[in-house]
Amino acid sequence: MPKMKTKSAAKKRFRFTASGKAKHGVVGKRHGMSKRGNRFLRQATGMAIVSEPDTRILKRNFFPYER
């Protein structure tokens, strides 16, 4: 049986921590910064943790070897 492929789009958008949680970049900072408040822009830096049910879906469907 051939190897299963990891989804390339998911590879670019998600990373996994050492404990197995999924991280993603904070949404809403690609364009339209003038509409956003300064508080939002400050808080929307770095990475955010994906919820536990969504992490299970990611591992099952998009990262077949990330168990």
Automatic annotation (TrEMBL):
Please indicate if the UniProt record lists Signal as a keyword.
no
Specify the domain of life of the species encoding this protein.
Bacteria
Q: Which PROSITE patterns does the record match to this protein? A: RIBOSOMAL_L35
What is the protein's name according to its record? Answer: Large ribosomal subunit protein bL35
Source organism of this protein record: Reyranella aquatilis
Query: What keywords appear on the UniProt entry?
Result: Ribonucleoprotein, Ribosomal protein
Q: Per UniProt, what is the name of the gene that codes for the protein in this document?
A: rpmI
NCBIfam families tied to this protein? rpmI_bact
- Cellular component terms per the entry's GO annotation: ribosome
